[in-house]
């Protein structure tokens, strides 16, 4: 299994697609792809003011709050409140979406996959063993509340809060001795539906 650590302090911030904030790309496929050409993308955004989200046609999104008090997200007229204790929010990038900060700036973790090409599964994990789906082609682990020491075969990878462990998933187990919650993202090819189903 190939493993790469991406340190939070090394992330490079770029403007949002709509220019309304900044985002730091953690990983994208194909490497070097832009907003209109990625097949999947994982990033952290700094949200400092209320306003619209960028529209991403054909993209499925999942978002969690990793720093700050929280945000109310309106997706096509339905409001959802997200803070660090909330579950994730999954929605379509096609939908008209706006955000209203609850009390000051936030940082969020954003997962996007292009429908019909890739799909993603996300979950919160704690110390123990995390099983990866057999279909997973890439996985990302981000510690949220405390450090993690991740054991992969003979190697141990030490992660601090908001660091990222990027994996090309070729084995089933990740061991996660740690002191808090982490967020695990699995990326897999999107299987087309069979005709008549």
Helix/strand-derived category reads: mainly beta
**Strand and helix order:** EEEEEEEEEEEEEEEEEEE
What share of residues is helical?
A: under 10%
**What is the first-to-last residue Cα distance?**
35 Å
Q: Major sheet: order of its strands?
A: 2-3-4-11-6-9
**Spans where pLDDT lies below 50 across 5 or more residues:** none
- Assembly form of the protein: single chain
Q: What is the C-alpha radius of gyration, as a whole number of Å?
A: 16 Å
* Approximate strand percentage: over 45%
User: Looking at the structure, what is the overall shape?
Assistant: globular
| Total count of helical runs of at least 4 residues | 0
Biggest β-sheet strands, sense, barrel: 6 strands, antiparallel
What's the overall average pLDDT, rounded?
87
Counted beta strands: 19
Secondary structure elements and pairings:
Layout: E1 2-6, E2 13-15, E3 22-29, E4 40-47, E5 51-52, E6 59-67, E7 71-75, E8 78-82, E9 89-92, E10 97-101, E11 106-114, E12 118-125, E13 129-131, E14 138-143, E15 148-152, E16 155-159, E17 164-168, E18 173-175, E19 182-189
Antiparallel strand pairs: 1-17, 2-3, 3-4, 4-11, 5-10, 6-9, 6-11, 7-8, 7-10, 12-19, 13-18, 14-17, 14-19, 15-16
């Amino acid at each position: 299994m190939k493993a790469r650590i991406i340190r939070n302090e090394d992330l490079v911030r770029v403007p949002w697609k709509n220019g309304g904030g900044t985002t730091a790309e953690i990983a994208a496929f194909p490497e070097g792809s832009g907003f209109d050409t990625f097949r999947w993308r994982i990033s952290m955004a700094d949200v400092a003011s209320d306003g619209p989200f960028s529209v991403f046609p054909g993209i499925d999104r999942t978002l969690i709050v990793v720093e700050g008090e929280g945000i109310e997200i309106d997706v096509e007229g339905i409001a959802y409140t997200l803070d660090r204790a909330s579950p994730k929010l999954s929605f379509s990038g096609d939908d008209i979406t706006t955000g209203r900060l609850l009390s000051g700036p936030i940082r969020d973790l954003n997962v996007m996959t292009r429908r019909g090409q890739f799909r993603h599964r996300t979950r919160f994990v704690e110390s123990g063993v995390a099983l990866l789906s057999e279909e997973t082609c890439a996985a990302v682990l981000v510690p949220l509340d405390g450090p993690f020491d991740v054991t992969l075969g003979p190697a141990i990878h030490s992660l601090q809060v908001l660091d990222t462990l990027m994996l090309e998933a070729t084995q089933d187990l990740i061991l996660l001795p740690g002191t808090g919650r982490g967020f695990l993202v699995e990326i897999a090819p999107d299987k087309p539906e069979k005709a008549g189903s």
